[in-house]
Amino acid sequence: MSNYIVIEGLIGVGKTSLCRIMRDELGARLVLEPAEDNPFLAAFYSDQDRFAFPAQMFYLATRYAQQADLRQGGLFDDLVIADYHFEKDQLFASLTLAGHEMALYERFARLLGQNVPKPDFVIFLDSPTEVIMKRIERRAIDAEQVIEADYLNSLRSAYHRLWAGYTDAPVYVLNTAELNYVDNDEDRKTVLEMIQGWLKGRPVPGAPASLQSEREVQPSLFGSRI
After folding, report:
1. pLDDT higher for 64 or 75?
2. What is the dihedral of CA 19, 22, 28, 29, to 10 degrees?
3. Contact of 85 with 6, CB cutoff 8 Å
4. What contacts 24+ positions apart, CB below 8 Å, involve 31-36?
5. How much is the pTM?
6. In this structure, what are the phi and psi dihedrals at residue 197, rounded to the nearest 5 degrees?
7. 3-225: what CATH class?
8. Which one of 47, 78, 145, 210 is most buried, counting C-beta atoms within 10 A?
């Protein structure tokens, strides 16, 4: 695999839209999270205590199957884009599982995680919670309409904790609140130029530095962001 990029972010922040743009504009192979196929998802949003474990195990199994296929088939692609990171699964599990369920889940996650490919870099898309809530409302996906702001805030904090200790690849944070790369040609051009700069190792002026670089240069500032 020549280049493998992961686009991460909260629900409704625009990660899948960006992945599709990169497929169309850069000729990338696209790997999308199998969210709509999870038969436990709607029930999970309504009753997390009861349906968290089957929903999480379904995600773990299907994401691993995708990653195993990517490890083989992706060897011949110049650029591969995924709209999720495999470790995201453990992040969600830490928010919804506990006790014996969490222990059992972790045993499977550790075993499977040893064999998934590592990205060249991660782009974490973020927006204020109120912006994401409005986007979720506009998307009008029934299973998402019960999502609350507190859940999104907890999820964002969990992502930041993940990135704080992440060393496998650079992580770039991109705020999408004022970016409309779906409908605005200039915004789309700006984001694609940033990504191509990161790919070539020559970041364009104004592009965000990686969180790892910020941590090395300004550890106190980075710590305050987490």
Report:
1. 64
2. 20
3. yes
4. 31/66, 31/70, 31/80, 31/81, 31/82, 31/83, 32/82, 32/83, 33/63, 33/82, 33/83, 33/84, 34/59, 34/62, 34/63, 34/66
5. 0.83
6. -65, -45
7. alpha beta
8. 210
Which residues neighbour 219 within 8 Å (Cβ) at sequence distance 6 or greater?
Answer: none
pLDDT digits (tens, 9 = 90+) for 103-143: 999 999 999 988 888 999 999 999 999 999 988 888 777 76
- Contact (CB, 8 A) for 42 and 143: yes
- From the list 24, 77, 83, 120, the catalytic residue is 83
Residue ranges of alpha helices (H) inside 27-175 are 41-46, 48-73, 88-96, 99-113, 129-139, 149-164
83 included as an active-site residue: yes
Q: Are 5 and 195 in contact (CB under 8 A)?
A: yes
